[in-house]
Amino acid sequence: MIDGLESSPLLAEIILGARQWLGGAIALAAVAIGVLVWSYQRTLGAAWLRFVCLILKAVAVILLATCLLDPLFRGSRPSPGSNLFLVVADNSRSLQLANAGQRESRGAQLQASLSKDSPWLTRLAQDFDVRKYTFDTQLQPTQDFSQLAFVGEASALSTTLSQLSDRYRGQPVAGILLLTDGNATDLDGNELSVKDLPPIYPVPLASASLSLDASLTSIAVSQTNFEAAPVTIAAEIATQSLAGKQLIARVLDESGKEVERQTLTVKKDAESLSHRFLIKPEKPGISFYRVQLALPGEEELAVDSQQSTEATLANNNRLATVDRGGGPYRVLYVSGLPNWEFKFLRRAVSKDDEVDLVGLVRVAKKEPKFNFLSRSDERTNPLFRGFGNKSDEQAEQYDEPVLLRLGTADKEELRGGFPKDPEDLFKFHAIILDDMEAAFFTQDQLSLLQQFVSQRGGGLLMMGGKGSFGEGGYARTPVAELLPVYLDRGAPQANTEPLHLKLTREGWLQPWIRVRANEQDEQERLTAMPGFRSLNRIESIKPGASVLAEVETGQGNARPALAVQPFGRGRVGALLIGDLWRWDLRRAEDQPSDLEKAWRQTVRWLVADVPQLVEVETRRIMGTGLPAREIIVRARDPKFLALDNAQVAISIKTPDERDLKIVAESSEQTAGEYRAQFVPRIAGAYRATITVTAPDGSEVGRRETGWSVEPETDEFRELAGNLPLLQRLAAESGGEVVSLSGLSSFVASLPNRKIPHVETWTYPLWHQWGVLAVALGCLVGEWGLRRWKGLA
Questions:
Q1: What is the pTM of this model?
Q2: Which of 310, 354, 388, 607 has a CA-to-CA distance to 723 between 20 and 30 Å?
Q3: Residue pLDDT, tens place only, 744-768
C-alpha cells in the first residue's frame, strides 16, 4: 500500500488562542448586554426600533469580546512539493479517432488540455510534485506532453497501473490522473485489481455516441472430424449505426484467395452478429486464414484508407490459426480373418494423407502338427512353403497363427505378431479390433491394450462379429473394462429380417457420425441404407457411455449399434454391427461412397486429441503490455512417460521471413515440461518448429505451432471506449471520474481531499479587517438609527 492514503483531510476550523480569558469575556459580554437591555427598556420609541438597535449594539459587543479570546482560523493544505501526483496520458492509436459529431480527434483534444500553459497543470504543480507519463505498449516518463504522437499499437492499461504501483510503493502519492479511452488491450478476461493503488481519477476521452462502424470483436477456431468441413471459424461481429445495411464477410487464405464469402444484413442499430465459416484446409500442418468484414464495394480498401465510410478499418480483419498437424496418424487394424471390412476401410483411409493404416490380418489360426499330412521331416507350416529360403527357425511353425502384415513401416515391424512391449504398441495412435477373439492375445497383451488407452491416450474401436465382445471371450479381461458396454451377453445375433440403422439424439450432435451436410440429407441417407444382418446383442451400457446409433428390428425394438466412452486419457468405441460392409453394396460406380467417408471420419475421431511424444502449447503472457508468448513443450519417452534432461530447440519464422532460434528451459514444476518466452516485434503470422532431442542424442520428435500478432485489432475493438472499466477503477480506488472540461475545478478541489502529507496553517481572526468593519458598522448603524428616529 502506498503510504499516507489513509489519513483524513483537516477541514478549516476556528480555535481560541487565549482560552484563559473565556470566562471573563463571557461575563463582560453578559454584563454589557444586560446593561443594553435595561437601557433600551427605559428608552421611549417604537418597539421594533429599540429591538433593532439592541441587536446591532449586542453584535458589536460580542465581536469585541470575542477578540479578547484571540480567535484563530486553522486549516490544512498539501505540503508543497511533499506529495506526488501522477498524470498519465494514453498514447495509443485509438486516440486518432474522432468522437461522433466532432471533427477534432480525441488525441488533438487531449494535447490541447495537456499543453504547457494549461492553467490546471500550473495549479496542480503549485501543490504537488507532478510526475508525467505516457503509455501504450509500455509506460514511459515524459517531460512534455507535446511529444504525444498517438502511434502506440496497444493500450497496456493493466500493465501501466501495475508498474506505477511497484514504482511508487511506499511513497506519498496523492492520486493518479488517467487520461484514456479505457480500451485496455492487456486484460484478456482478467480482472484489473487496484487495491494497492492511490485514488485513480480517470478522464474518459471517448464519448458514448459512435460513428458508423463494423468490427470483428473475436474469432474462435474449432476442429471436428466432419470430412466436408473439418474446421469451423466462429466470428463475433459488433456493429454501430449500420441498421438496414449489408456487410460482406469473407475468409481468405494465406495467398489472398477467397475461400468463403457471406452477405450479412444488419437489422437494427448496435446489433451483435455471429457467423460460422466452414472450411476445409487444403494442406496439413499450420495454416492462417484472414477473416475480413467490409461494406459492399469496400472489400479491397487498405486498412489505412480514408475512403471508407466506416470510422476505421483497423478492426475489420483478424487472423485465424488452424493447426491440422499432429500426423501422420498410425492406426493398427487387427482382424481375425480376411474380410470385406478391411477392404473398404483400407480404400477409405488411403484417401487421407494424414492417416497411415497398418494391417495385421490372420489368415490361419493355430493348428497342431500332423506329420501324416505333410512332407517327411517338414516341421513348418506348409502355407508358407515356397516363400523364400527361410530356415526352420524363421518360418512360421504349426502351432502359431499365420499373420499377414500390410502397410508396416519396415520389414521388422509386427514381425512377431501383435506388439508385446509398450514401445512397439505406443507407436500407434489408434487400434481397431475386428472379429479377433481374446484368446489370440496373451494376458500381458490384454493389459497392454488397456495401458494403450488409459496411459498412452490412444483410441480403441472394437467391431462386431463372432470373435468380438462376449462371444470372443473378452468378459473379465482388462479389455472388458475399456469397453462402453457390459459383456454379460455378447453373442452375435443372426437376423432373418434386416436391421435398420438410425442415429440417437447424441449421435445427431456428433459431426463425425453424420455423413451429409444437413439433417434432411442425412435422414434420406439413413432411409436408403441397406439392412444389416449381424449384430452383437448388448443389453446395457456403462455409466458415462453414450449410444450414438441404434438398429431397429422389424418389431420396432431398438438395440445399441454404436457406443462410445472416454477411458483414462483415451477414448473407446464399440461398433456392434458385424457386417457394416453391406452399406456399400448398393452404391453405383459413379456415386461417392458414404461408407468410405464414414470410415475416414471415424478414424479421425479415434486419433483426435491423442497425445504425441512432443506436444506444444502457446500462451500469451499477460501483464507485460507486449504481445509476448510463452511456448510450452511437453516431451515423453517411447513409453509415454515424462522425458527429462532433453534438449528443446525452437526455430521461429517471423512475418518478414526471418529465422530466429531460441532454446526452451526445463520447468521446475512439471516433469517433462519445457518453457521458452518470445516477444514478437512486428504484427503478422508466426510459425515455430520445435525439435526435441533425447539425452542420448536421438531425436524424439518434431512439432509445428503458430500464432498471430494483431495489436491494431485489439486496440480498435471498442470505439466507444470502456467507461464501465474506468468507473470501476475510480470507485474501487477511492477516486472519481473527471470530465476533460472539468479538470480545472477538479484540481482546485484536491486540497480538500485525502492527501498523504499536509501542513497546518493558522490566521488570527482579529487580523481580518472584516471583523472590525462589522463591529464598527453595527455601532455606526445603531447610532444612525437613533439619530434618524430621534430615539432618546
A1: 0.73
A2: 310
A3: 999 998 888 888 877 766 767 767 7
